[in-house]
Amino acid sequence: MGNCCERAANFFGPQKNTYIRVSLPAVCFVWQIAMVVLFGVFIRYDEESDEKGWNEFKKSHNITSNIENDFYFRYPSFQDVHVMIFVGFGFLMTFLKRYSFGGVGFNFLIAAFGLQWALLMQGWFHALDPVTGKITIGIESLINADFCCAGSLIAYGALLGKVSPVQLMVVTLFGVTLFAVEEYIILDLFHCRDAGGAMVIHTFGGYYGLAISWVLYRPNLNLSKRLNGSVYHSDLFAMIGALFLWMFWPSFNSAITNHGAGQHRTVINTYLALASCVLTTFAISSMSQKKGKLDMVHIQNASLAAGVAMGTAAELMITPYGSIIVGFCCGIISTFGYLYVTPFLEKKLKLQDTCGIHNLHAVPGMLGGFVGAIVAATATEEIYGKEGLIETFDLTGKFENRTMSTQGGYQAAGTCVAIAFGLVGGVCVGFILRFPIWGDPADDFCFDDEAYWEYCFAQFMSHIVVYYQLLEALS
Amino acid sequence: MGNCCERAANFFGPQKNTYIRVSLPAVCFVWQIAMVVLFGVFIRYDEESDEKGWNEFKKSHNITSNIENDFYFRYPSFQDVHVMIFVGFGFLMTFLKRYSFGGVGFNFLIAAFGLQWALLMQGWFHALDPVTGKITIGIESLINADFCCAGSLIAYGALLGKVSPVQLMVVTLFGVTLFAVEEYIILDLFHCRDAGGAMVIHTFGGYYGLAISWVLYRPNLNLSKRLNGSVYHSDLFAMIGALFLWMFWPSFNSAITNHGAGQHRTVINTYLALASCVLTTFAISSMSQKKGKLDMVHIQNASLAAGVAMGTAAELMITPYGSIIVGFCCGIISTFGYLYVTPFLEKKLKLQDTCGIHNLHAVPGMLGGFVGAIVAATATEEIYGKEGLIETFDLTGKFENRTMSTQGGYQAAGTCVAIAFGLVGGVCVGFILRFPIWGDPADDFCFDDEAYWEYCFAQFMSHIVVYYQLLEALS
Amino acid sequence: MGNCCERAANFFGPQKNTYIRVSLPAVCFVWQIAMVVLFGVFIRYDEESDEKGWNEFKKSHNITSNIENDFYFRYPSFQDVHVMIFVGFGFLMTFLKRYSFGGVGFNFLIAAFGLQWALLMQGWFHALDPVTGKITIGIESLINADFCCAGSLIAYGALLGKVSPVQLMVVTLFGVTLFAVEEYIILDLFHCRDAGGAMVIHTFGGYYGLAISWVLYRPNLNLSKRLNGSVYHSDLFAMIGALFLWMFWPSFNSAITNHGAGQHRTVINTYLALASCVLTTFAISSMSQKKGKLDMVHIQNASLAAGVAMGTAAELMITPYGSIIVGFCCGIISTFGYLYVTPFLEKKLKLQDTCGIHNLHAVPGMLGGFVGAIVAATATEEIYGKEGLIETFDLTGKFENRTMSTQGGYQAAGTCVAIAFGLVGGVCVGFILRFPIWGDPADDFCFDDEAYWEYCFAQFMSHIVVYYQLLEALS
After folding, report:
1. CA distance to partner chain B, nearest, from residue A134 (Å)
2. Do C260 and A53 touch (CB under 8 A)?
3. A23-42 and A165-183 are packed helices; what angle lies between their axes, rounded to 10 degrees?
4. pLDDT tens, position by position, A171-215
5. ∠ CA(A470), CA(A472), CA(A475), 5° rounding?
6. What ipTM did this prediction achieve?
7. Distance between CA B449 and CA A35 in Å, rounded?
8. Which of C18, C25, C35 is opposite residue B324, by nearest beta carbon?
9. CA-based nearest distance C323→chain A, Å
10. Taking the mean position of all CA atoms in its chain, how far away is CA B427?
């Protein structure tokens, strides 16, 4: 059987360069040991997860019930976000007929590394105690760490099937680092609101992945064309991912918004926008084919674009019909993107974007940033109440006197920062990934789990071989 | 390859009538634009999701903590219900070997449309402010909207594989409308309790679907017989749907029950009934086959019947062993239904019920309505406490003096109303769907994703062709 | 077609002994009726789920808000645990190419029975009211019942594909009984802390399954070797189970820990350990193969070992970096187990462990027990605060004066009790299962759904037959 496996594997030419027996374990071990050391030096429980700290916190804040612990406000949303990161993103990327292991497996690896590194990077920028020099973490840190991974997982969508797991670890290392910096600029310096990360997660992640993919352009990728597609059941696996993303997106956008009405409203807005997006996605998908048939790629992807585009505005008073309008437009824009823009980018800009993250993350994220800017600029005390306006935009301290139009301007500027970080960071990381040491597959060996997974595809391939031999014999 | 696709597609005869390139986009766009307008006119945030409103609400109700926002009582259950609607119902309907895209995809479409229309319809009947003329929505509205969709999704179960997506939109439009009316009669006028919707969701949805299917009877459906069945992996996909329904049914029944002991008890009752139901389902399934082998259809469906049948009674003091007895009976009744009643209905009543919703929703729902009536009629102050009885049955205002036996009578009457609405409404909608404009497939082209999905089954079919050619050649 | 099915089924020899048409229904019916009777005699709602009781409880405890009901502290975690039991364990066991129905289906059956029996057994030992003679149940009881099932489901992992469903019911009946006794000894008599069940669930369940499998050794199991493996899509189904287990393990470990900081900290610790474990699992998996390719078996299983190993210590102040170190070691140990220990056990100890529970549950569980002992022994008032130490270890009543080193000693002793109960109990149950009345499959008919599921594999098999015939003809 082993012999048969090997013969089958050689059928389409020799495997180049995909030897990762040294590099992958080395990267995993060294970086994980670094995590142990850095966590030992820096990371501690925050006062709501520390046994002693919480008892003191309750006394000092006159809290009588444990239900006031932030844990109970955030944990259900956290678990939904966690499912989106690992099952949502992971299974959405199983749609390729023979790269499903790589889709869900490498997603697992890079998210597991990324969230540790994110706790450190985000901690240094946002939660470093100047006195003790420690970072304290709680449930909100875990949600933010998952968010931070999402940026790199989005980038993976553009690279799916064309890079090695070692390269993906590098993408994640730099992706998380860049994320933490741009997030610091956008959320802290610019004092923008972006609870669902339309700017910091989706715009950044989208352009980061596209820039990397552009640098890593493969002129002969059509040699792997036969595998760059789905089969019936791989599309169903991808549908699992798509639906969990779609269903839990209200949790994604509301996970770190303000307690009470803030989380409540964010859920309503996201829920409505996503529902609306589904209908326009089906409409455009059906219109685009001569017999009106639907395309699974659109249903799996474009129907999610509204969640991205509501990332900033969902926590604001965008109104229910405002949300529906955003969803309406996103379904159209994103499906058009899959139909016309992705092929255009590939032909004209030499940009190969396997999952079409340009249409699902980059453009809707950018759109979401600007929608957020408009909704922020038009916010008034009449709508939010004096107290509500201050709470929603956190206009305290040195931002006390910021006007709403200024806020809107900063929101728009934040979107531009996210794009810039994505593009520039992506190009730099792309050049790093071009060193010939990472074990990436040859052009004729892309989109193939055979490269990195111990699995015998002989049975699968032999079926195809048999079929063609028979067709020939019968003709 | 395109040529090969076409040849393969023509193998079993020409495709009739399934051109939906105009009708589906038209329906999606027009109805979605109507939603935008109607939401703009009618829908606003309620006081717990409105920034200003919540701050005022807290002051006027002397609430100090945001955790008192209804959001934190309902959101975890809401997300479970959401998963049931989209992954539960969706994947349960992927069991057909070649209609999995249609099962999960059209479920997605009609639920996304249905929940928007449900927010409006239910709002007009239950939450229209007479002063402002606005409907205010919060987390409980979203749960109810999901519930309302469930009625139409159940109906889809009877129609699976035999209708076009445009027809399904029509089914949903009328289904949601009828639902809102019967719900208003049962819950408001009759003042019944039906938190999990045994009557309003399952009985109505079941008979609605059956009546439609009866009107749409296809005498030559056996021409599509070869596709009306499962393959190994499609049954596993369906098992994903079945398990998520089974696991989250306690959330379904408890999502809108009273805070505190009400939600708590509903979960316990539903959990126990479902567990009990699994054992009798396995028992009857094994007894029914000569070698004692189990049938996946029973396991996927009949084990859920207890959740349906507990829809009304779960929030009442039915006692743990009462719940187990209900589950015990449901497993038996539902499995017998799959074994004997569904074939009987098809042969004698000319009623084609693809998913067997008669056994999973219609009969258990009706049963649940009557169980609820009995448990309500036997409720006493001794069991509930004076305060508890008033709270549980909401006996305030003009219902202050209603006796428990009267309540029981109204519950029973409510079940009959649900049946009547389902049957009459379904027959009417069925006749509408018989107009030859909807793009439904011909009798020999049912249960086939080829009709509405851009997908090349040539590879799949060629395998079968090769196999038969070879069998012939060898014989 | 029936004829063809039968021919195909006889292809690899006659089916022996798998007639369960009498025994399975009998066991299901009789045991379920026993449940009805026992629940009727013993089980009642507790004061937080009883309508009258909760109103009285609120008054007597001066509680004004329903949010103080334990339901709101536990329900989100409960649902996550529920998903782990039914989808997590169920789908993890679908990895075999032709035993996926049995994996997920029998998991469903035994968990549904086990949780009812667990409510009774655990109730008698922990919650029997000496005055009324009743067991009162609430949300925590449901979580504990799910936990209790997990012990038997773990044991099923070692037996997967080699036993009949009737045998599995017997395994569960005794498994739950033994579990309740060892749990009583460890948690009540020894007064150990073991919120995530490293000892009581995983160590016990692991050794229980291994001991049964050892007694049921099948010398000719290699006759079924062709089916003891995965295919591409069955590995993806298993990945669904693995990911839901991985994502929800923080909920598993925190589901019954103390409110407030306790649950909060448990989640953080488990989350970090699991992330760390993924990286070392990938590293060792890659190192073990000559080309550095990854093995799905390791990714699906070894990456979960950290959750097991944190079962005891996660609720303690193990520190974030302590958690990461535990995860680091577990990934290495567990993957080595799959590579070297499982083959060794099979060859030398005649121990056939289908899912490798030795590496995923038995060893990590034992390790977790000892880690917990160390962390407990080193606990100080300085770290926990005086109040926190008493709360965390529940040092009240007769345990008021227990020192931390004594506590550590008891924790270690508890681990040994769990091992002893697993091994001795497993051997006894194994001998019971050797009676020739249970309908288990012959050695050449293992790992095959054909034995217990009404399903025609003719199509599947014919493809293989065709393939070999053609290969021969062409050579």
Report:
1. 30
2. no
3. 30
4. 999 999 999 999 999 999 999 999 999 999 999 999 999 999 999
5. 110
6. 0.93
7. 49
8. C35
9. 9
10. 19
Among A360, A97, A357, A90, CA closest to A225: A97
User: Is C287 in contact with A76 (Cβ distance < 8 A)?
Assistant: no
Assigned CATH topology for domain B23-473 = Ammonium transporter fold (1.10.3430)
Tokens of C213: 């499998």
Indicate the pairing of strand C43-45 with strand B135-137: unpaired
**Residue-wise pLDDT tens for chain B (475 aa)?**
344 444 444 444 444 578 899 999 999 999 999 999 999 999 999 999 999 999 999 999 999 899 999 999 999 999 999 999 999 999 999 999 889 999 999 999 999 999 999 999 999 999 899 999 999 999 999 999 999 999 999 999 999 999 999 999 999 999 999 999 999 999 999 999 999 999 999 999 999 999 999 999 999 998 888 888 888 889 999 999 999 999 999 999 999 999 999 999 999 999 999 999 999 999 999 999 888 999 999 999 999 999 999 999 999 999 999 999 999 999 999 999 999 999 999 999 999 999 999 999 999 999 999 999 999 999 999 999 999 999 999 999 899 999 999 999 999 999 999 999 999 999 999 999 998 888 899 998 899 998 999 875 545 444 444 544 554 555 4
Length, in residues, of chain C:
475
Please name the residues in contact with C126: beta carbons below 8 A apart, sequence gap of 6 or more.
C184, C188
CA-CA distance, C227 to C162, in Å (whole number)? Answer: 12
**Gap from A132 CA to chain C (nearest CA, Å):** 16
Q: Please report how the helices A70-83 and B70-83 are oriented relative to each other, as an axis angle in degrees rounded to 10.
A: 20
Q: Do C101 and B246 touch (CB under 8 A)?
A: no
Residues of chain B positioned with their CB less than 8 A from the CB of A471: 462
Q: Smallest Cβ distance to A45: which of C260, C265, C279?
A: C265
Say how far apart CA B280 and CA B329 lie, in whole Å.
Answer: 8
> Which 8-state DSSP code applies to residue A67?
G
- DSSP for A197-243 reads -IIIIIIHHHHHHHHHHHHT--TTGGGGGGGSS--HHHHHHHHHHHH
Amino acid (one-letter) located at C48: E
Q: How many helices (H) and strands (E) in chain A?
A: 21, 2
Q: Shortest CA distance to B77 belongs to which of B142, B132, B21?
A: B142
Taking CA atoms, what residue in C is nearest to B239? C104
Inter-chain CB proximity A240 and B29 less than 8 Å: no
Cα(C367)–Cα(B85) distance, integer angstroms: 41
Spell out which residues of chain C touch residue A237, defining contact as CB-CB under 8 Å. 233, 236
- CA pair distance C417, C409, nearest whole angstrom: 12
Q: CA A468, A471, B1 angle in degrees (round to 5)? A: 75
Judged by DSSP in three states, C149 sits in helix
Facing residue for C384 by CB, picked from A51, A138, A165: A51
Residue type, B376: A
CA distance C235 to chain A (A): 8
Q: Do A233 and C233 make contact, defined as CB atoms within 8 angstroms? A: yes
* Closest CA of chain A from B14, distance in Å: 14
C239 touches chain A (CB under 8 A): yes
Residue C276, SS3?
helix
The Cα-based distances of B215 to B26, B218, B430, B439, C117 in angstroms read 26, 9, 5, 17, 47
Measured in degrees and rounded to the nearest 5, phi and psi for residue A294 equal -90, 155
Q: What is the pLDDT of residues A209-254, one digit of tens each?
A: 999 999 999 999 988 888 888 888 899 999 999 999 999 999 999 9
C280 touches chain A (CB under 8 A): yes
Sign (positive or negative) of CA dihedral A314, A315, A316, A320: positive
